[in-house]
Amino acid sequence: MARSRAAYEYTEAEDKSMRLGFLLIAAGLLSLLGLGCCWLRPALQERGGGGSANCTVLAVRQLGERFACTFSCGAACRGTARYPCLQVLVRTSRSSAPALLHEDERQLRTNPKCSYIPPCARDDQENSENVTYKQKYWKEKVGSQPFTCYFNQHLRPDDVMLKRSHDETVLLHCFLWPVVTFLVGILIVVLTICAKSLAVRAEAIKKKKH
């Protein structure tokens, strides 16, 4: 009995391999739980009532209202500037009612009144020029040409997005790598146990022959 127990004692290398396997299993599970609660679940909720549609520009206009943005000019240099509000109204193939276009979900949360937030520059005039350039782009280059947009009937029925912040690729990677880590951990543990078992059996067979 004592010999059998001694035979199944793991060497230092095998013990390290087992610890690595259990560590990867724990890391994979914790990553899945963390991403599921903090990021993946809200992302799926955003996509839950959403879909894609064809959008056509109805009107492009600048409001008189200006909004503040924060610029950075160095490690300890920050300040506030202002930019005009550009609104791009579109009609979707899903509804005849006009909707306000946004760059993505992040821009929608940052400023739901406007369709575009320029890179914040120190000079207000530069911010205005960037917004005016965007206005000309939607009026002259896009015009009446249809383009793909995204919507979410449950969260923001009156707004559409030009692109999604959480696309299928991002969601796949967030789910894939924790699962791969978990499976690699299980594989290491199983291979270590199998290798030890085979070594013990080989040693037993060798002793029987002698």
TrEMBL record:
Pfam families: CaKB (PF03185). The chain crosses the membrane at residues 20-42, 175-199. The keyword Disulfide bond does not apply. The keyword Transmembrane helix applies. Signal peptide: none annotated. It is found in: Membrane. GO terms for cellular component: voltage-gated potassium channel complex. GO terms for molecular function: calcium-activated potassium channel activity; potassium channel regulator activity. Keywords: Glycoprotein, Ion channel, Ion transport, Membrane, Transmembrane, Transmembrane helix, Transport. Its main location: membrane. It is a multi-pass membrane protein. One of its GO terms (biological process) is detection of calcium ion. This is KCMB4 protein. The lineage of its organism: Eukaryota, Metazoa, Chordata, Craniata, Vertebrata.
